[in-house]
Specification:
8-stranded mixed β-sheet, 5-stranded parallel β-sheet, alpha/beta, 23 strands, single chain, Rossmann fold, elongated, 2 domains
Length: about 400
């Protein structure tokens, strides 16, 4: 249920911060990707080193130390998650949340997020029962914030009463309940291709391209988070396998086509891989040598190239095995929309995601992408999406896929 989910965990000030370390451990055991934010108050009780070691992630602390290139900005932290959990939630942070104050990383991320938020309050009994705190909690609950606890029990300073943070096991159960609702792609099967293909010249050399697989892997992960059963067919890539996704590793275009056909039937196929257009007709079985010298120069070997199979066109071909929705990618360096429109018509797919991969854009291997979605019609409808992280692009595309499948009906 939790495998592959992403939780932004905000740890604010209070002795109960030590329990958050146990919560991180339990979430990690269940395959949750935890990104932690430790407030200045929280750092008085536990260290960022402990948090980072358990989360296997950077522990973020300072709003103004984050940069778009070297770290994750606060807007990305707020958005690239499935749930924000504040545990412990101090009276001070609850007041900031209720009144829209954003003066540090934690409060800024909370104000910026559009994802569900869960709080686990922890404080002295008199602080919890104070009229201001109760007003703040009432306002937060009216805003849709989920609350667990506080419990009644022993507190610091030899006191007892309501204000004790819920136990990690109880918070974990609440998180599981939050994710219990099926996603919009629940019961659907998705096929995603990613990365480059490599075509052997000889046992040492090959033809390839600069695709990193970041966008395709992000799409597979996003579809899985929406509940789909996902098969990711990937060429050689350094990207980690997405959680909760079946990964089939291939090298050549022929291998990728065979893996894709083996994954059918599916409801949707997203062909994000940068498949090599050509391969060597007959790859050498031994390493090619420079050859005999002639007239003071080495004789260059001649390579005879043949076309690779067209995976997108094959999956788009009418027939009982055709996915209900086939999405292709058009990576271009010039005449982006014109070339993408021609590809949409020629391949027979339903949508094309067009992006400019000119060296100046930094798209290949980069963290961001700017795409244009082409759908149906003659000429096709073109949606210009703003530049965004590849994760954001993947989530937006996956949501559109879910809407399209729901609109066409069927199981």
């Amino acid at each position: 249920m939790l495998n592959g989910r992403r939780v932004l965990l905000i740890i604010s000030g209070g002795i109960a911060a030590y329990k958050s370390l146990e919560l991180i451990r339990r979430l990690r055991e269940r395959g949750v990707h935890v990104r932690p934010i430790l407030t200045a108050g929280g750092a008085q009780f536990i260290t960022s080193l402990s948090v980072s070691a358990l989360a296997h992630e950077t522990c973020y602390t300072d709003l103004f130390s984050l940069t778009a290139k070297s770290e994750m900005g606060h807007l990305r932290l707020a958005h690239e998650t499935d749930l924000v959990v504040v545990a412990p939630a101090s009276a001070d942070l609850l007041a900031k949340m209720a009144n829209g104050i954003a003066d540090d990383l934690a409060s800024t991320a909370l104000l910026a997020t559009d994802r569900p938020v869960m709080i686990a309050p922890a404080m002295n009994t008199r602080m919890w029962q104070a009229a201001a705190t109760q007003r703040n909690v009432t306002r937060l609950e009216a805003d849709g914030v989920q609350r667990i606890g506080p419990a009644d029990g022993a507190l610091a300073e030899n006191e007892s009463g309501p204000g004790r943070m819920a136990e990690p096991a109880d918070i974990l159960a609440a998180i599981e309940a939050c994710f219990a609702q099926p996603g919009p792609l629940a019961g659907r099967r998705a096929l995603v291709t990613s990365g480059p293909t490599i075509e052997a010249i000889d046992p040492v050399r090959y033809i390839a391209n600069q695709s990193s697989g970041k966008q395709g892997h992000a799409i597979a992960a996003a579809c899985a988070r929406l509940g789909a059963g996902v098969t990711l067919v990937s060429g050689p890539s350094l990207e980690p396998d997405p959680e909760g996704v079946e990964v089939v590793r291939v090298e050549s275009a022929n291998d990728m086509l065979a893996a894709c056909e083996g994954a059918l039937p599916v409801d949707v196929a997203v062909c994000a891989a940068a498949v090599a257009d050509w391969r060597v007709g007959q790859a050498a079985t031994q390493k090619l040598k420079k050859g005999a010298r002639s007239g003071g120069a080495n004789r260059l070997p001649s390579l005879e190239l043949v076309e690779n199979p067209d995976i997108l066109a094959t999956l788009s071909r009418p027939g009982p095995a055709r996915p209900r929705l086939v999405v292709g990618f058009a990576a271009e360096t010039e005449d982006l929309i014109e070339n993408a429109s021609r590809k949409l018509a020629a391949k027979g797919c339903d949508w094309i995601v067009a992006n400019d991969v000119s060296p100046a854009t930094g798209t290949f291997g980069g963290e961001t992408n700017r795409v244009h979605l082409l759908t149906g019609g003659d000429p096709p409808l073109v949606e210009d999406w703003p530049a965004a992280s590849k994760t954001d692009v993947a989530e937006r595309l996956s949501a559109r896929i879910a809407d399209a499948l729901a609109a066409t009906g069927g199981p």
